[in-house]
Amino acid sequence: MRSRPFPSLRSLFWAAGSLLLAAPFHLLLAESADPADPAIVAAPPPATASSVHSDTYPPLAAFDGNVRTRWASRASGQSEWLQLDLGATVALDQLIIHWEHAFATEYEIRVSTDGQHWETARHCPAGKGGREALTGLGAQARFVRIVGLKPGPFGLFSIWEVEFPDPQVQALLAERRRAAEEGRRQQQEQGLAALRGQGVHELVFAVRPVVPEHWYANFGYYAAGGPSYFGNPDKLYRDGGRLCRLHLATGEVTVLLDDPKGNVRDPQVHYDGRTLLFAYRPGGTEHYHLYEMQADGTGLRQLTDGPYDDIEPSYLPDGGIVFVSSRCQRWVNCWTTQVAVLYRCDADGQNLRPLSSNNEQRQYPGPSPTAASSTPAGNTSIAARSTTTTSGSSTPMAPARWSSTATSTLASS
């Protein structure tokens, strides 16, 4: 166990974690500050879109300078648009679009100086996907909108990155990125202050590399014995996981568990405020199982075992544990990819039994706070999320994280 400064506040809310409170029997789960908090006011985003496939593919991802992140629309069967606000009117003569496989076979570049009145700078009736460079636009624009009129093979639109070779446009875009980052930083600072005001002192979180491109990555692989381009099969977990504690007042991080060849995920705090529950794949092993540890890093013990993956656990008020597991031996309808469904066990990992029967993924189970007051004593109402896919889509829907306990909740955004 060791301590070190926390690298950035941004990392705090990009790592799923649980919060340790000063008072016992209280628990908050947080991935971000509450968007309903009136003290937190966000500036208008520089990038918007007509729709978003999921939170994994936001509009700003197409303008962040990173060709490994992207925006994706929903599969609506209608036209969709992606828009950038440069913050000031500037001459726009060229841009480069890096399409994902879900490209537009017909699209337009529209521009506006006020966001209300639009002109078509270029109509592209035969989009080919990949890298498409458009020159000679000769437009004056503050707002730039890429409108997908007809989708390609996947029924939606997705863009890795939009480049602007014009130096003036680049300067404006850089400033918009900086302002957006500063806005996020201020929101995170306010969120931390709000947590401290509620008596929260420390955050427990896991750090792990992930493959973000598909919900299959949450479980393990694209396909069992699949074609060679999936690696036959391509395991999607990556080595290098840590379980940590962050002291909110000082920013100091204490590493509780560090496994360069393994992986740690899904930490939860017990109602006693002292015991941690998480999924752990020790280095050199293939499967995740449930483990417990004391909040000071001592007393590591394994709860479940076997040739299965047990992930996303949550403590139940009756003393049991609910989680999702591949013990069901089920696969999705459209591919040879295993899924996990709801299971529960006793506090010591014994008496395992399934709670659901499905061939679609169940995710992030936990006690339902809305049902707690009406649930008879001795029973527990459990909420969970289902993963769904869109037929023909290159980007199936990514699930949102439930942030719920039997005591108190800080909503995710």
Provide a quick synopsis of the model.
The protein is mainly beta. Helices cover 10% and strands 38% of the residues. It has three helices and 25 strands.
Helicity range: under 10%
CATH class of the largest domain: Mainly Beta
Query: How large is the count of helical segments?
Result: 3
Enter the CATH topology name of the largest domain: Neuraminidase
Largest sheet: 6 strands, antiparallel
| Proportion of residues in β-strands | 35-45%
Q: Give the number of DSSP strands.
A: 25
Characterise the protein shown here:
This protein is mainly β and 413 residues long. The chain has two domains: 2-23 and 199-386, 6 Propeller (Neuraminidase), CATH 2.120.10.30; 47-174, Jelly Rolls (Sandwich), CATH 2.60.120. Helix content is 10%, strand content 38%. The protein contains three helices and 25 strands. The strands form six sheets. It has a six-stranded antiparallel sheet, with helices on one face. A five-stranded antiparallel sheet has the order 4-6-11-8-9. A four-stranded antiparallel sheet has the order 5-12-7-10, with no helix packed on it. Strand 14 and strand 15 form a beta hairpin. The radius of gyration is 23 Å and the shape is globular. It starts with a strand and ends in a 27-residue tail after the last strand.
Fold topology:
Elements: E1 2-5, H1 9-14, E2 17-21, E3 28-30, E4 47-49, E5 71-72, E6 80-92, E7 95-99, E8 104-112, E9 119-124, E10 131-134, E11 139-151, E12 158-163, H2 167-197, E13 200-207, E14 241-247, E15 252-259, E16 263-269, E17 275-281, E18 289-294, E19 301-302, E20 310-315, E21 321-331, E22 338-345, E23 353-354, E24 362-367, H3 369-372, E25 382-386
Antiparallel strand pairs: 1-15, 2-3, 2-13, 4-6, 5-12, 6-11, 7-10, 7-12, 8-9, 8-11, 13-14, 14-15, 16-17, 17-18, 18-19, 20-21, 21-22, 22-23, 24-25
